[in-house]
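User: two proteins, same treatment. go.

Assistant:
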Amino acid sequence: MHSTALLENVVAASSLYNELVMAGVCEALNVASEPRTVSAGRRPVMEVAGMPYELIGWMSQRGREIDLCRQALEYEYVTAVDEDGNLKFGPVVSEQARTKLNRIAARKTRPPKPKARSLAQLRTDWRASAKAFLGEAVHLVDSLLERARAAAAAIRARVAETLDVALAALGVSAMVFVMSSNGLFHRRHLLAETRRFLALVQRGCRREPGLDDEIVNAAIATHCLDITEPKTTRGLLADYRLIPI
């Protein structure tokens, strides 16, 4: 695979990776997944259902450090002025600027690499760290699997056994259209959104192979219009067709 194709499809590949890893974990442990909103206005992330928020807080300490540093950088960004007293960048932090500032914050707050440890030692250290962080709620560490399986049983009782492909295609098409800057997108954008959608509705259950392609094909056939004028051999490929709603 050449670097251009890899870069273009990195989001779709990442969505597939996240979906399959969560499905594998849920299948191995007999648990389910659920969405959790980490930042307002952002997409939810899928996590194992039944995990206490106290324990999620223990795992999010690094994220909080980055957030605090990024907020300080954002303040500097919107208040920075040139020699004439004019704002250098602007009064609002754009999404693109926030992404760059987040990378800077991650580098500024990155701790030194710890010494290599065996998996057995890591598990021991993680358990001790979690118990120390939870304090009075330390009992949660010893009941995680039971809590997760109880939550999974309740979730699976509500999950439909079959998926309406036509309805999924409509929802995916609408989401991609809203998220695109000019209403134009490629097949890979539909594929990435479809895989996020499947991770959300399947709740950790494995789906039928090819279901993501089936939904994307239905979306393109029913809700999209091909406006590409191919000028190269690559432009004839389905992945490089430009389509609006």
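Protein 2:
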Amino acid sequence: MEPWEAPVRLLPLPLPPVHGEVFGWYLHRLAAANQVTAGQLAKTLTPFKNAQVGKRTDTLWRWTPMVLPRLAALTGLTPETLRMLLPAIARVEARTAGDVVRYRRRLYVACSHCMHRRGITRPVLAHRPADLQLCRRHGIWVDGNRHYRVGHLPELVSAEHRHRRIARRFPDTLEAATKEAQHLVCSWLHNKNQPHLLSRWNDRLAQLPPKEAIYGNIIRRRVDERDYIATYPEFVTLLGMLADPAWRTLRAPRRWANLSQHRRTINAVYAEAEHRLNVPTLREKLHSHTFSNDALFRWTDPLGRSLMLVMTPDDHDALRDELQQK
């Protein structure tokens, strides 16, 4: 009899998974607590002999839905609970049913203080919802390989609340708008073209604590998370605008576009962003060629249609003069 055909018994220490935990990470925690190997547990759950489960194993391409009832018997948890807590289980069932499964590897290390409350002393790798950036209970930034303490910056906590409301309101456009809003704030921060915002961000950077415990061997980031923390409130403010379909439709190419329409569109977008961000102006260097390279200008007109409609230097100046007057 193969291991996956034998009856399953409840483990001596049936640890429950953390919400969103990576399947391989959970299986290794469960195995260590019960003094067995993750491979031994895997062979009792899936019908193939060479089941190799690393800590980051989460796609489970060769696994079958029988993993759910057998894991429920091992842990004493209901199938509904395991399906809710372990995203890999839901993907196995969806793939078996023929549904299209999109795997998004947005991972984070769970707050160590929250884990200690549950008796877990080692890091836990889990899937992060798009709107989770910090642990509000302990004021710790969890989106990165260093868990900075940011509870003394109330604007970050407020931004987290707004982020969750935006995610619930605009689920269909959230992913694209998130990338666009991150590009906007990163461009303004690094190019130093928005002095009103730059002063805010520098103030926040000065208030961030020294580097905290690092999880670089678990989570790797290609950007400086301190910069992301400093710009997070403005990022959320812009996200609420960029994710709104009413504003996104202004970017749709129109067959019979003209320069005047583009002037009004660009002016409306800048006026709305200035109002939401509470800054006097975002239209720096209007009479410079660099204005057309501004990140918000390029978001409004990603194909450069405004500039293609400009036939003479006078038209080019008219576009900027009209924006400045309004």
